[in-house]
Amino acid sequence: MNKILAVAALVAAPALATAHDLWVERTPGGFLVRSGHRGAEALTVDAAKVKAIRCLDAGGAQRDVLQAARFAPREVRVAASCAAVSVFHDGGYWSLTPDGEVNLPKNQAQSVVRSWASRQYAKWVDAKSPRAGAVLGDELELVPVTELGRARAGDKITLRVLSAGRPVPDAVVAIGHRLIGDTDSKGEIRLRVRRAGVESISTSIRRTRATPEADAEVLEASLTFEVAK
To answer: Which domain holds residue 78?
Structure first.
């Protein structure tokens, strides 16, 4: 495949088919943040791009625990007790060129085919907590409508995609990078829980942006929670 055809294929590909997730999991005594494809080798996490790590406590209060986070090349660890955790990662500007993607705005790259501003939001919720369905107010987030504490492998659950608290119709939703479908007019989607253990669901939206730096903005969000056996 020549460069032009390769670029055309990338332009046509759904965002979640090629994206790298950012996700949060619970660990003894706290939480772990990683990037990449869950179940595969973790990618490098740039500490400078992690702008916030928020903890929602059992009483419903939020606090930023970024300053307490411990960064390693491929992970971030936070010692905290939370009913929900939200991480904001600002990926900066990206441009697609015939030679591949570069982490530069379009006014600093050559032969740009398309460009975008990338922002990722990772969320973990305690499925058994009454706060599991709380709206944290992220620019993009997945919020459980179904009571997750009752969900088991094979059960269907309903999720809602919100942007700053408002429903987002036509958001693309995937499990493990397998596309499930788009949200309806209420920003909701029904999907089946795959298995017991840690479940991770992703969503993505693309918005026109028309600035010297980018043609669009791509927002991605993940939701992880534990499914009881």
So the answer is: 3-227
Structure tokens at 4: 């032009």
User: How many residues make up the chain in this entry?
Assistant: 229
> Pairing mode, if any, of strands 100-102 and 70-72?
unpaired
Reading phi first (left if > 0) and then psi (alpha if -120 to 50, else beta), residue 165 is in: left
Tally the domains of the chain. Answer: 1
| 3-class secondary structure, 110 | coil
Query: Do the strands 216-227 and 197-208 form a parallel or antiparallel pair, or are they unpaired?
Result: antiparallel
pLDDT in tens, 27-84: 999 999 999 877 778 899 999 999 999 999 999 999 999 999 999 999 999 999 999 9
What is the spatial distance between Cα 113 and Cα 37, in angstroms, rounded to a whole number? 26
Longest dimension (CA), the chain: 57
For position 174, which CATH number holds? 2.60.40.10
Residue 5 has pLDDT above 60, yes or no: no
pTM above 0.85, yes or no: yes
> What separation in angstroms does the CA of 127 have from each of 66, 70, 117, 118, 208?
23, 25, 32, 28, 35
For Cα atoms 182, 133, 188, give the angle at the middle one, nearest 5 degrees. 15
Work out the pLDDT band at 19, boundaries 50, 70, 90. low
Residue bearing tokens 């950012």 = 22
**What's the CA angle centered on 20, arms 179 and 106, to 5 degrees?**
110
3-state secondary structure of 219: strand
